[in-house]
Amino acid sequence: KLIFLTQMCLQILVNIGEVEPTELDFLLRFPYMPNQTSNFPWLTHVGWGGIRALNNLPAFKGLEKDIEGSHKRWMKFIDSESPENEKLPGEWKAKSAIQRLCIMRCIRPDRMSYAMKGFIDEKLGSKYIDARSIEFSKTFKESSPETHIFFVLSPGVDPLKDVEKIGKVLGYSFDHENFHSVSLGQGQEIIAEKAIETASQQGHWVILQNIHLVARWLPSLEKKMEASLINVNSKYRLFLSAEPAGDPLMHILPQGILESAIKITNEPPTGMMANIHKALDNFSDETLEMCSKETEFKAILFSLCYFHAVVAERRKFGPQGWNRSYPFNVGDLTISVYVLFNYLEANTRVPWEDLRYLFGEIMYGGHITDDWDRRLCRTYLEEFMQPELIDGDLEFCSGFPAPGILKYAGYHQYIDENLPLESPSLYGLNLNAEIGFLTTVSERLFRIVFELQPRMSSGSAGGGESVSQEDIIKGVIEDLLDKVPTPFNIAELMGRVEDRNPYIIVAFQECERMNILMSELRRSLNELDLGLKGELTISSVMEDLMLCLYMDQVPEQWTKLAYPSLLGLQSWFGDLMQRLRELESWVSDFRLPSSIWLAGFFNPQSLLTAIMQQTARKNEWPLDRMCLNCDVTKKFKEEFTSAPREGAYVNGLFMEGARWDMKLSTITDALNKELFPAMPVIYIKAVTQDKQDVKNIYECPVYKIRLRGPTFVWTF
């Protein structure tokens, strides 16, 4: 809804000339200066790069100096809980609404969705923002035999209930045989067609559910709907429901079905409160009373509801919630409750171990494909499913103890009265998790609105615009081609080396990959350059490349030869240059760098494996008995001048969700607003498995980027 409102509001303002194009472009595209260093702990490097870029626009002259000069006022503003409701420091509070948004996007990107709501409220009025869903009975009044109602399904929302409810009031129900509901799947098409025939003549209601499951039959459905309107009974109503496709190319619903319908979507409930209530809604007093061990059954059932709400709602934190997203659903919860009932009836004592295994490895764990996610699911169950739960000594999160024995309505009331306000701590996450999640939400908002902006193609009549877009692209091509280096001469490098140890082989592999990537960059940019000069026909691949260069995105033909990255094109290229410089300095003399930038490799695993190979060869140990020991040092990379005798020092790692305490040499809670605290240099050396430290150790997964999931590197 917010994406739609933002697009609508901005277009209205553009049409009445209230928006300066360069400012709108900055707000949506956020073209910050890459590789800038912020001197303030309360402002990120990217944020400072944004301020420096903004400083070049006429309305923002002097912004950079003002922040440096009055940094106390700015710090107070940036650190406030909801800065979008505060006034900007100094003369900046008098700026226009869109200019204030530009500044805000640099300094508190995580608050931008709230700031946009305020902006829409100010420009269009509050009725657009106070999102209450329209009562279904009002929408129903607009329907007719010709205008049917189409529900776009979202997870956890059941539109059938709305239809049944209003049907009862108006005298349409299964009992009266004038309400037909068909859930589509194999062989149901004929039943659906018959229902439409009967209902259109006799004035009944029909609801066809999940029509996306029968793609082939949809054209016949469209024809059937048209035919049923001849001599139609004025009381006839048709309701359809389908899930939206994950990708625009996968849409299968005929346009005619959608165009003649009123389309309704309800967003699924968000937040812990809504989700626990929703989990409890699947049960009733009868369920709660059905077990002979009432105390145990009720306590564990409530605990399952909390667990269900946590695992479902954790998804919103992205990769910090789950490495991959899983379709946990109500079925998992109800079947777990039946398993619980059977196990309690069959045993004299509560079989905690068995229950945790059944819930965590089978009912919920059956969806989980990632080992780290499985560990997380197991950990939740170890916390929530233990004898303290029955004694009433367990807290699900701080400030929310397990309830005693209550009636069904009592549990709902208990949640309303006792559940703390929505925050990451309800899920056992650090408060910073919310900043990351909110930043991602607003970045997506602006990316989509930016992609919706009208673009002039080079052949269009609107002279002025089209030239500038092509000029931007030509500028980018020139800039990148200038910086693409000559390839590494691998044959010449090999000739300089006598001892080809595992490290040297890693260096060669990295050079080879760098050459392949750089030659594709050079080839595709030169090809596009010739295309823009009119010497080559522009192909669809070249068009995609043009769009990427204009939108500051990394083209797919480059990323598939590179490494996972979430950066925009300019920052990605800056990062690529840094990787290149590291590699050049390594192969200049082939001495292992005093400390290695692990994140700068195409394939970081190869270096870690090389450490084990080198040690195994030297000591004549079998390679399959080796593993890595990681010692976190007390220094950063600048303080190291030479490589260790064995193993390697590695730098460039960050921790998410916690931080390393250098004084105590332990993992500890992250500081507020510090999302990715840097790790000191880690000394990695290979040992045999029997020598590995196991006391007070946390097994920590290492990933290439914060998308986690498939970018797993190693366990430190």
How would you describe what is shown here?
With 716 residues, this protein is of the alpha/beta class. It has 5 domains: 130 residues, no CATH class; 130 residues, Rossmann fold, CATH 3.40.50; 146 residues, Helicase, Ruva Protein, domain 3; 123 residues, no CATH class; 124 residues, no CATH class. Helices cover 48% and strands 9% of the residues. The strands form 5 sheets. The chain has a 5-stranded parallel beta sheet with strand order 2-3-4-1-5, with helices on both faces. Strands 8-10-13-9 form a 4-stranded mixed beta sheet. It has a two-stranded antiparallel ribbon with strand order 6-7. It starts with a helix and ends with a strand.
Task: Identify the strand order in the major beta sheet.
Answer: 2-3-4-1-5
Q: Mean of the pLDDT scores?
A: 91
What is the domain tally?
5
The beta-strand count equals 15
CATH fold-level assignment of the largest domain: Helicase, Ruva Protein, domain 3
How far apart are the termini?
42 Å
What is the name of the CATH class of the largest domain?
Mainly Alpha
Which superfamily, in CATH terms, is the homologous superfamily of the largest domain? Region D6 of dynein motor
Largest sheet: 5 strands, parallel
Strand content: 5-15%
Uncertain parts: 456-467
CATH architecture classification of the largest domain: Orthogonal Bundle
Instruction: Give the structural class.
Output: alpha/beta
Shape: globular
**Approximately how much helix is present in the residues?**
40-55%
Please tally the helical runs, counting DSSP H or I stretches of 4 or more residues: 28
